[in-house]
Amino acid sequence: MTSPALLAVTDQMRRAVGDENVLSAHSERVVYECDGFVIEKNCPDVVVFPTSTEDVAAIVKICNEADVCFLPRGAGTSLAGGCLPVGGGVMIVLTRMNRILEINLRDRYAVVEPGVVNIWLTNALRGTGYHYAPDPSSQGACTIGGNVATNSGGPHTLKYGVTVNHTLGIEAVTADGTIVRFGGPTEDPAGLDLTGALVGSEGTLVIVTKIWVRLTKNPAGVRTMLGVFNSVDDATNAISEIIGAGIIPAALEMMDHGIIEALEAAFHFGFPLDAEAVLLIEVDGLEVGLDAERDQIVELCQRSGAREVRQAKDAKERQLLWKCRKQAFGAVGRLSPSYCTQDGVVPRTKLPHILRRIAEIGKQHDVRIVNVFHAGDGNLHPIVLFDERDRAQIKRVLAASGQILEECIACGGSVTGEHGIGVEKIDFMPKLFDDNDLSAMGRMRDAFNPHNRLSPAKMLPTSGACGLEQTHPGRRAAL
Amino acid sequence: MTTVADTLPLDDTKAPPDQAALADVLADAYRSDTVVVPIGGGTSLNFGMPLERAAIGVSLGGLNRVVDYPARDMTITAEAGVPMATLAETLAAERQWLPIDVAQAETATLGGVVATAFSGPRRYGYGTMRDYVIGISAVDGRGTPFKAGGRVVKNVAGYDFCKLLTGSLGTLAVISQVTLKIKPRPTASAILLADLADLDTADKLLASIVDSAATPVAVELLAGPHWRDHPALGTLTAGATTRLAVGLEGTPPEVDWMARVLADEWRALGVTATRTIDAQAAATLWHDLAEFAQAGDAPLVLKASLLPSRTTEFVALVLDIDPEASVQAHAGNGIVVARFAKFDPGDVSQALIGRLQPAARLAGGHAVVLSTTMGGLTRQAIWGPVDEDVVWMQKVKAQFDPKGLLNPGRFPYAG
Hints:
The complex is a heterodimer. By secondary structure, chain A is an alpha+beta fold. Chain A is 35% helix and 19% strand. Chain A has helices spanning 3-17, 26-29, 53-66, 118-124, 144-150, 157-160, 194-198, 232-244, 257-267, 287-303, 315-326, 328-331, 351-365, 391-410, 429-432, 435-448, and strands at residues 22-23, 46-48, 70-73, 90-93, 100-104, 109-112, 130-131, 167-174, 179-183, 206-214, 216-217, 221-229, 251-256, 277-285, 306-311, 338-341, 368-373, 382-386. The longest helix of chain A has 20 residues, at 391-410. Chain A starts with a helix and ends in a 31-residue tail after the last helix. The relative contact order of chain A is 0.12. By secondary structure, chain B is of the alpha+beta class. Chain B folds into three domains: 1-185 and 385-415, Uridine Diphospho-n-acetylenolpyruvylglucosamine Reductase, domain 3 (2-Layer Sandwich); 188-292, 2-Layer Sandwich (Alpha-Beta Plaits); 296-384, Alpha-Beta Plaits. In chain B, a hairpin with a 4-residue loop joins β18 (326-330) and β19 (335-340).
């Protein structure tokens, strides 16, 4: 944006939402130059914090009148660059719209603003017998608005489903500044399921300002186990055996040797440092069925070669196990100065194959890769370790990451299970989808965001960017 | 057998043998401005506004292959014309299932069930079709084939056209192939039945289920003649007006335990006459519960979507309008299906638009006509009043079907 235009827009923003809700100094804006995807960075021209739906509508209208692009942001925990302001423009940060507006237990729903942190809702529900099921590992920081944008998952989505399965309705501000509601607290709204289509649209179609979410009854009981394996193959085989036996655990997570090492250094849980893989397995439901299900899982693990299956002896130990799992990414800091993670998905029966391939790809590119992932869903999170000061290494990291995703596609899978396409995986869209598929997606965008001022250069390779000639952001910052 | 498709004013019906041929048929229709009515099993063609222009039918009957069934991955990919009963048999061989209740499953097709998003009692425990479609292929109004999603259970690459097309009633594109995630089949299934004196008692029990230690998969409130003297339910207890049938599924110990716990909880609320229906009787009842909405030729079948807590009050309104109406409420979800015994054209403005639709709206939702033997109902009568979101539905429609050739006028929006 040119300076006079920028000044005019900034001034209008201040008048619309108040000085205290606008950041314009570079030192303040630089915080917003990237999200959890740190390989590319770009500073927004203005950062605005609306406190109401009407604020969002006013901001969007100002942007449209000035022909400036804009994008929403929650807590910025996205791992795919969904909040990267490609081409600058106005960043609309929704963290000050953070009220839980209603909790209705009889009708099993809650209404929240987009800036409500995921865990706040479950905390607010403590003691009611209900919770909000989607539980991304970043749930202590990420917002429900952001979860809606990326259709977030989490370990327990294996049994309970991802964000869209728990979203009844949304209120949104469209790209032209109209406030509109899709769905609501009742099921089966008449007409198209636009709520379903807008969840996971990564902020490219509308800006969500209110969400009706389904609440889930707490399970009466839970059994949490840790299966210890001498080989990755044995562990993945056990996963296949458990699912094949018709058991759907609440969660089924795998961590390999590298992650075990980092977690043990960080949390001193007592993980076996000589194990090649551990499975964190949780079943929940009625007490009456749980011991039998646990015994069956223990037997299946042992038959697959587990050297030991431990059970969390109490709630405290279970919590510690989950803390270890959910903070695994943080613990990786003990292994290397930087890392990037991928989010590929394969059919569950392809897990042994893909994990062998990941190890080979790591060797081939001379990079270290560790794994912690949602094994029950086939949703991988290979973590590639590197030092960002080493440019040659970064090239190898990107090459290895790309090859892993290609391999996921070859297995009949996808390049993202829960993190989103963002800017990071935009090159893979033409590998997953043909021209007709991408055109259909382009038409969806045209229906909601015809001028492409909202979140340009995201998700679709054809999505352009206002004020940018380049239609693809490339890897500028990294290379 | 005469199907609804035979009664539509269709000039011709094409039956493409495969997905490529389907795209050709739709591309021809686009070039010649021909209106198209997609036809699966033809069991729900009377849902929505009637056809308003001359049209051709496009039967999906030739697209009847199960494409891929990797049972251990718990997914299945099948063409749109596969009958639901065939799909169920295929899955049953691996002790798996799609836990969506379907009426006329021998005839209804996968594509049709996705397009209507109809579901039944088990939605309380297992969700609806939108929760199971993970990949979809379709042909848009220009005759261009496209797909979205994939064959893995967790996938956020690209816009979710699985959700967009589920329930789109053939107005955006003709669905040609679907990938579903599926579930292991529970080993035990039973229904706990209580005959209740009145709707107030029903409301108390429904509220208690929200806090119950049990986790039922269906919560069905049943009233009216259809349920009074029923082959699986038996005869309604003297003095009772309403029946509550709660579906329980899982392992045999889980089902037994839930039946005991619920009976105890209900006894504490003063309801002692409970009975567990299992084995063949339960299977018969599940079947009837799935068929109810589409069985018979009632003058009007209405479906209301409400806040669950407002279910009994809406049922009371239905019975006030027609004491001989038969009602099935998926009460845990706030869905009420009312089959009226008597409903005259004069009742449309008085009872439907004047009382039932506003009551549904006050209860947080809306009411739509599932089927009617009366002709000439307006769009508002069929779909209820529309909101501002319809504008955005029309914008999407214009992108996928720019000439308005796919099931035009059938949906809540014009065109």
